[in-house]
Amino acid sequence: MARGAKLREHAALSSTIAPSSTIAPSNRREARLSAATHSETIEAQALWIEAPRAAALRREALRAPGPGEARVATLWSAISRGTERLVFEGRVPPSEALRMRAPFQSGDFALPVKYGYCAVGRVEAGPAEWLGEIVFCLYPHQSRFVAPLDALRPVPPATPPRRAALAANMETALNALWDSGAGPGDRIVVIGAGVVGLLVAALAARLPGAEVTVVDCELSRAKVAQSLGAGFCRAADFAPEGLGADVVFHASASGQGLAQALACAGLEARIVEMSWYGAGETPTPLGGAFHANRLQLVSSQVGQVAPSRRPRWSYARRLGKALELLGDPRLDALITEEIAFADLPRELPRLLAPGAAGLATLVRY
């Protein structure tokens, strides 16, 4: 998730929805389908990263779902640009390979690998009470898949399946807001207007009296930020010194953005670092007023529920709330491109190129 995409540390998410916290699907049914027999075999196609910056579709035979499982026909999946760019370019640090594993990943980061975690689909086989249910799952880009019921989260009726594909991004934004301690009336700056940065801004702007400013080098994102209730400043015009922000979110995945985040923070303010940089070094300017202003630079990552909520919030509860928050129709502005699943291998180098235009890209099945 660069630009706002704090890496989803997937090893911690392998138990995203524990059996004890499974929520039964609603009575909403978009289709009534017959349950599969145990002898049935279905073929699916899955996206694999075969080598750095090279992808292909592979055929996979799916077994029929067993007890406590369902087969899902994918409708949409979302590309998490920052994280998937690191995977696509073969830049996952060996030290982070275990924590970065997606719950249903196949292969490894030495490549080839099947990776992804933003799938929305319709249950087409499994227990009768689940048939036809629209669900979100942390599954790679694949046309159909079999998963445990505990890993499927029903999408609320008020959230369209297309927008529900942003649930992983919304979880990241929600967790970061909890990590920040932001409150009503705060002066809040979000540096980096990618999908996650804009989702943070949208949530922060709901705080009564909060003054939210989004900073980004792309002037085209000003309209989106303003539609979500935030102000906007182009990075080249941003004068951070003396701003005295109460809370700063850094989501640009750049050293320059981090320097601006530190410079605009007020006395004893908190800077929430959401970016995931991958392999290599990132300059962090800790001179100047960093010590004198007693600044707090904290990491926010979605693999753990924020400490302030952890005693009461399960992964399931957080994901359910993220899907609920995506009921806001203004968030459709974050989806700037759709591509057909069959075209994904050809389009992926363009979509994951550094500085690629647009915000969220959805894959249509």
CATH topology value of the largest domain: Quinone Oxidoreductase, Chain A, domain 1
Task: Give the distance, in angstroms, between the N- and C-terminal Cα atoms.
Answer: 22 Å
- Overall pLDDT confidence: 90
Q: What's the CATH C level of the largest domain?
A: Alpha Beta
| Helix-strand string | EEEHHEEEEEEHHEHEHEEHEEHEHE
Mass-distribution shape: globular
Helical residue percent?
A: 10-25%
Number of helical stretches of at least 4 residues: 9
What structural class do helix, strand and pairing data support?
alpha/beta
Secondary structure tally: strands: 17
CATH architecture identity of the largest domain: Alpha-Beta Complex
What is the CATH superfamily classification of the largest domain? Answer: Medium-chain alcohol dehydrogenases, catalytic domain
Biggest sheet, in brief?
7 strands, mixed
Low-confidence stretches: 1-38
Q: Tell me the domain tally.
A: 2
- The gyration radius over C-alpha positions equals 20 Å
Beta-strand percent range: 25-35%
Outline the structure in words:
This protein starts with 40 loop residues before the first strand and ends with a strand. The model is unreliable at 1-38 (pLDDT under 50). The chain is α/β, with parallel strands linked by helices and 365 residues long. It has helices spanning 81-88, 97-100, 161-164, 167-180, 195-204, 222-227, 255-264, 315-325, 344-351; strands at 41-51, 54-63, 69-79, 106-107, 113-114, 119-125, 134-137, 144-148, 153-154, 187-191, 211-216, 231-234, 245-250, 265-273, 296-299, 335-340, 360-364. It has 2 domains: 10-168 and 311-364, Quinone Oxidoreductase, Chain A, domain 1; 170-299, NAD(P)-binding Rossmann-like Domain (Rossmann fold, 3-Layer(aba) Sandwich), CATH 3.40.50. Strands 3, 6, 7, 8, 9, 16 and 17 form a 7-stranded mixed beta sheet that branches. It has a 6-stranded parallel beta sheet with strand order 12-11-10-13-14-15, sandwiched between helices. A two-stranded antiparallel ribbon has the order 1-2.
